[in-house]
Specification:
three-stranded antiparallel beta sheet; 6 helices; globular
C-alpha cells in the first residue's frame, strides 16, 4: 500500500470521526470541496493523476484529530473499518453507503443539514 492510499484511508476515517466532510473541513481549516475531490478520486483534464491529499492539509487533519502531523502517513487499519476493503462510497448529502447491502449511514451533522434543507424548501414554497 502506497502513501497515497494510506492518506486516503486516514482521510476517510477523519471524515467519519468528525461526522462528515463539512465538519472535518471546518476543524482542519481547509476546503470541503477539496476533501470531497480527494475522496471521489477527481481528476480534471489538466491533472495527470487523481487529486491527492497535500502535505499541509494532511498535517492540518492530523492535528485536528489530536495527532502529530505525520500520523496521517502511517497505516491505522484498526481505524479504517470498511474503508480498507473499498466497500463504502461517499455520496453528497449522505454519509456512507455500503455497496453490498445498500445501507446508508446518516450522521447527526448530515441529518441536521438535510433537515435545514427541508425547512428551506418548505419556506421557499410558501
Amino acid at each position: 500500500m502506497d502513501n497515497r492510499e494510506i492518506r486516503l484511508h486516514n482521510l476517510k476515517y477523519a471524515i467519519r470521526f468528525f461526522g462528515g466532510t463539512a465538519a472535518l473541513a471546518e476543524r482542519a481549516e481547509c476546503s470541503k470541496k477539496y476533501l470531497e475531490q480527494i475522496v471521489q478520486g477527481f481528476q480534471s483534464g489538466k491533472d495527470k493523476n487523481p487529486r491527492k491529499l497535500g502535505d499541509s492539509v494532511a498535517a492540518k487533519i492530523a492535528r485536528a484529530l489530536g495527532h502529530d502531523p505525520y500520523w496521517i502517513d502511517l497505516p491505522h487499519p484498526e481505524l479504517w473499518d470498511a474503508d480498507a476493503t473499498n466497500e463504502t462510497a461517499t455520496i453528497p448529502g449522505l454519509s456512507l453507503l455500503d455497496k453490498k447491502t445498500g445501507i446508508v449511514t446518516i450522521t447527526r451533522t448530515t441529518l441536521g443539514d438535510l433537515w435545514g434543507q427541508a425547512q428551506f424548501c418548505a419556506i421557499s414554497r410558501e
